[in-house]
């Protein structure tokens, strides 16, 4: 069977060459088959792939008595194409189709990821192109027109329209330079105006000197930008956008170059006052002077309007009306972190619909947003962008502290760097129980505390005020063990007005309260958490662990779905060989930094509750400003620069031992 198939293949391939050759009565099919067989055998012996070159040389030598060289080469090339290249191409296409079918899902993911990555750069790419379009319009207005087109131009277009196009062409160029900044920042108004200016700029380029090359470029840019509306989602005022030093420098350099280029181009034209009022097809120096003044006046007017315009938002601590609005939003939020607003030590930044807000503080030149957006808004991206813009308007720099993964693409769009600072622990309450061997340590804690005559109790908001003196005594005693001030901004502190907003979980006996924590509750029974925690020196061993266990059980009984234990700083950082340097340093501090903070002990304490961990980040400016922002954030949390370097006192030696090991991690939840 194999011999038969091989013989048929040999006859077919040899016959192809015979029928491709010109007819010759002295050359028969048998001759060609013999020549073909000899050439194929010698080609195989040569070990050259496909006998390439060897086969053709031998066939030329054996067929030369019958035909000319050209008449032989053409059939041989056709033979190679038909017998080798066409089957190879068909096989390659079949293989590609098969591999695509086998890896369809994987390739779709690659395609989606690639498209998503490239689409994120769309505004930046168009911003550069719009800026270059402005440069083109300005520079073409500074250079003499091609004399070949000027003669015909006067017969086609009226002179007043030519002069107006020269003036407004340069003005359109200046507008494109300014709009490029808004396009970069995804402002919808900048997108719409850029389309209009590009279209008008192309028309003016045609009218002023029939410059179809420049017009074609502007029109092409217009048509490419037109379908990209979805990338420009920010509803923001163009007058309130900030211009960085690099933006201002680039615009200034382009304008100065435009002026220099124009004066250089017309340096042979003697200046006189009459130049300003000369109009004509060849009066291009006069047109340049008028365009320069027009562009300068436009920049001057817009610059003055920018300087004299008020800031987009009034900066002040929230009043009673704003706090009521914030309270309403927090009460509708499933996340509990928004309850930090009740400390009333942060500014509030609401969205236009008053459905969500950011809380922030200002330290030095750094505007620090605390956590994610509180509430639900259809314009969350715009809210983050507006906050960033507002910080720039006040000559500051924006940073976002302790944020989740939710808005990472927006922070990257702002040009910020994201650094992982730890992981937040959330315990699914449905699975939390005191039953089973895994919970024997919790059962021991509950028995140990309750055997000594203590119990757990929830105090409602209405009753908290009557217990405030006793709670303050506990807090003051606890603070005496510390050096420096209470931490602020990212956590609550003891304040009667603040604590009166929440129910309080306490541990007490017949005579006194020994520990307490205020309770944060999310909407729809989604989440429960604690913020401020204090205990007295008389509290029994494992008091705070007992409080957490009982509070989780209480939350489960009342239908709450999860309990937030807060963040474990520096946990979850990678230690691999190619991990970022910050991860390696942070992991080293996490493992060996007990002298500064019990990082590992805190993580281990929270791990006992079998939580689900989610990363937390800080979004910072790039370069040298990153260090300044970190310093400002530390000062904001510590209550000043001095607070950064204050150190907590150790417990007295008589109180060390088991209690210190078991309770210190829970203390550091605050």
TrEMBL record:
Output the Gene Ontology cellular-component terms: plasma membrane
Where does the source fall among the domains of life? Archaea
**One GO process term, biological-process aspect:** phospholipid homeostasis
UniProt region (Disordered), positions on chain: 648-670
**InterPro entries hit by this protein:** Acyl_CoA_acyltransferase, LPG_synthase_C, PG_lysyltransferase
- For whether the record's keyword set contains Membrane, the answer is yes
Its subcellular locations are:
Cell membrane
Q: How does it sit in the membrane?
A: Multi-pass membrane protein
* Ranges annotated as spanning the membrane: 33-62, 82-100, 121-143, 155-178, 190-206, 212-228, 248-267, 287-308
- Which stretches make up the Phosphatidylglycerol lysyltransferase C-terminal domain? 332-619
Please state the protein's primary subcellular location: membrane
Give yes or no: UniProt keyword Protein biosynthesis. Answer: no
Short name of one Pfam family for this protein?
Answer: LPG_synthase_C
Alphabetical UniProt keywords: Aminoacyl-tRNA synthetase, Cell membrane, Ligase, Membrane, Transmembrane, Transmembrane helix
NCBIfam families reported for this sequence? bifunc_MprF
What is the name attached to this protein's record? Lysyl-tRNA synthetase
Q: Which organism is it from?
A: Methanosarcina barkeri 227
